[in-house]
Every structure is written in structure tokens, then in C-alpha cells.
Write a structure and sequence with these properties.
By secondary structure, the chain is mainly alpha-helical. It is built from six helices and two strands.
Length: about 130
């Protein structure tokens, strides 16, 4: 990978993680990598193997090309043709604790063991 590709990858990992509201710990656990390694990737200090890239793409639910920043944004027509479904948007219950995490079941934001996920009802989380 060239320097600008590594920098673009680092930016895309941070952008995708932040857009989902995930802390680094959650993404590292979901991708099966260490927190220290993820931090180095987000800073552009490491060049990941193809296996690590695939793990990150799977953790985000994205294809490898999007993670690498090699695709243009999908139009609504292309999105509809892909057969994917858009996620539900909605407020997280006020009764949950203040540190939302991504639900391992559906990817929605919710807090730890206090209440079930408002989207899918799952009770466990990765802390």
C-alpha cells in the first residue's frame, strides 16, 4: 500500500467507526484485533494484511472497496438494486445508561446490561 492509501484507510476506519458511534474497544473486539493495533491503524502507522482488512470490513458490514475508499457513493437507485435494507433510525431510550454501544445483534446503539436493545431485544453487549 502506498502512503496515501494507508492515510485514506485510516481516515475511513475512523469515519465509519464514529458514524456508528462505536468506541474503539467495541470495533477491536468485533474485528478480533487488539485495541493497540486498531489505534495504530486509525493513525495510519500500520499497514494491515488482507485478512485484517476483511475482518474490519465484515465488522462494519461494508465491502472491502468501501473500507479502502475505492468506490463512489451509491445513488438511491443503486442502493435499491443492491437489495440491502436501510437501518432503522430512532432515539435511544432515555432509561439506558449514558454510554451507548453498538448492539452485537442488530448494530443499533444501546447501553450495556440495563435494558434490552430497543431494536432487537438482545440483552448482552461487548464492554
Amino acid at each position: 500500500m502506498e502512503k496515501e492509501q494507508v492515510e485514506r484507510l485510516a481516515k475511513n476506519i475512523r469515519r465509519l467507526r464514529n458514524s456508528k458511534g462505536w468506541p474503539r474497544q467495541f470495533l477491536a473486539a468485533k474485528a478480533g484485533i487488539t485495541l493497540k493495533y486498531l489505534a495504530a491503524l486509525e493513525k495510519g502507522l500500520m499497514v494491515p494484511s488482507k485478512e485484517i482488512l476483511e475482518r474490519l470490513a465484515n465488522a462494519f458490514g461494508e465491502d472491502l472497496a468501501k473500507l479502502l475508499g475505492e468506490t463512489k457513493p451509491q445513488t438511491d437507485v443503486e442502493f435499491a438494486a443492491s437489495g440491502k435494507k436501510r437501518g432503522k433510525a430512532g432515539p435511544v431510550s432515555q432509561s439506558l445508561t449514558s454510554s451507548p454501544l453498538g448492539c452485537p445483534g442488530c448494530g443499533g446503539q444501546w447501553a450495556t446490561y440495563v435494558k434490552p436493545c430497543p431494536n432487537c431485544g438482545r440483552r448482552d453487549s461487548i464492554d
